[in-house]
């Protein structure tokens, strides 16, 4: 009896320990003698994305029968909650999908591999625009390979624009012209837009003035004239007050319910956002829509190609060659890209862009054309947001909310934001 | 002696083996993590680089340098101090109705308890969001009655009120406990008081409430603790942002943001420990004051 008891305890402990080491071994075994390779890959996204990504993976396995691929996927929020502990335990998947707001953090903490040696070896990048490829460089190293690119713009309903008394969005429109048009729409009882995401568009505005939101080292803000802050956010708050943009009460109320948003209901002309969000929006709006470039002056200086997301390889991976090969397959295989259909942004390879063009839906075609028209004008991207940026963005969003609710002046917000942001970013100083 | 010890150890071994999953689980997932979190609360830790000891730094920041922390405390206390009494009053009210003799009473009890079974879930919160949305049933009712619809998620005060109504609506578990308590009150007492000519109101305050007071204390403590830890509804309804204007930024939600969005694990651990101490103090106060208002029959009513 007693012996049996001990046996049970020991057996249980053994199961526990082997279960743990099993997880360890699986990740590190890599290519074994018989040429079998095991890859782990993780991404976030919607159900559509999970489906076609699995199809691309199946296609890869079919062409490389020696490879098995374990997949892990989640929604955006859950993804990062899962990835952080994996990184802390040195258990990152071999290939991880990276977001621009997180890549600095993972790269600077030594979790990702510099992919520069793989370029034009395992990963062919001959027909990729250099500006685009450079967006994966953090602190001088190629930590990410962009899956595709996005560009900011105004996505709108041309018929509604006419109804508001505006014939068309002028070519090379300016910040002042934008405000005038918005007020004109307001006088015709139509919202011009649904305001702008504070961090993204303020960053754009700063770029048109030759500045950026963060300094190059990521240790502080990248502008020192608070007047820029006051002009931009003061201008937007003014538009809210005059009815060109819904009030923050309304925005909060409808947040996350696309069906209740003004553009879908036909009470708002357009929306400022990334080009890859156009296809989804077009489906819900279900009326002819169009894309317009950002406002100037100096639109060329402000606008940039942003990677929709990156593929990155974990530095602890034992199968980096195979991981690189998979990324190359993703980037350069025509068959694979006919499944992807530009869902992770407009493909960065010029050849692939051409090859998949006939396969696209009308809305996706519009996006491809819009991105193609902006690509020659765009300036290089600023460095990816530094460590601490999620907190900086949350702080900015908080202050702007108070400004929009009329509880704080833009001047006060500018000063307070500067103080808070610099405190948070100061931690990045070595 | 040693032989007997050895034998009893052997005899107990099977028992130990059977409870070992719990012991291992308790150590690995409760006790050890608790001590690690206590350690982390004195460090600056971002999950990637090793924790850095900063002594009382986190607590200093919490109490002197973080207005958002105080806002979250204020919101949480409003939520608890308004929500818990309302919920208990409502639970008692329903329990008394369901305590009457009626044929359908079983069905009613089930129906009223249902929200609590699915309570706290994401699905309920999403439903709640839809009920209070622009075109939701609440606003449709309001406009049908000629009132102006309220921006439930747009107005900082309204959104907290909406969260509180959600918590009041999930009154089922305390209602069941009240129901059990009501059933324990001897019927003769009511009959005797009827003979003496007591009104229903008098009966309620002189018989029901005093005899129910131990149950009220139990419910009060359990509900207070669980209210302090509310997270899911605030997270879902405000889309994780605690807005508008931090009006629904409950302490647990702010803690979550610090830990998983800003990677300030050490700070979040410190917040968790301060909250634990606050709940402990509040519970202690409830226990101490209970001497003055809880009536135990065993004491023969001083």
Automatic annotation (TrEMBL), chain A:
PROSITE patterns linked: PROKAR_LIPOPROTEIN (PS51257)
Gene3D superfamilies xrefs: Periplasmic binding protein-like II
Superkingdom, taxonomy of origin: Bacteria
Pfam families linked: SBP_bac_1
UniProt protein name: Sugar ABC transporter periplasmic protein
Species of the source: Paenibacillus polymyxa
Gene: yesO_3
Automatic annotation (TrEMBL), chain B:
UniProt main location, coarse: membrane
Localization of this protein: Cell membrane
Residues that span the membrane, as ranges: 21-42, 77-98, 110-128, 160-182, 211-237, 270-296
UniProt KW Membrane keyword: yes
Keywords assigned: Cell membrane, Membrane, Transmembrane, Transmembrane helix, Transport
GO terms under biological process: transmembrane transport
Cellular component annotations (GO), alphabetically ordered: plasma membrane
Protein topology in the membrane: Multi-pass membrane protein
Boundaries of every ABC transmembrane type-1 domain copy: 73-286
A Pfam family it matches: BPD_transp_1
PROSITE patterns reported in the protein's UniProt record: ABC_TM1
Family stated for the protein in its record: Belongs to the binding-protein-dependent transport system permease family.
Entries under PANTHER family matching the protein: ABC TRANSPORTER PERMEASE PROTEIN, ABC TRANSPORTER PERMEASE PROTEIN YESP-RELATED
This protein's name: ABC transporter permease
The organism of origin for this protein: Paenibacillus polymyxa (Bacillus polymyxa)
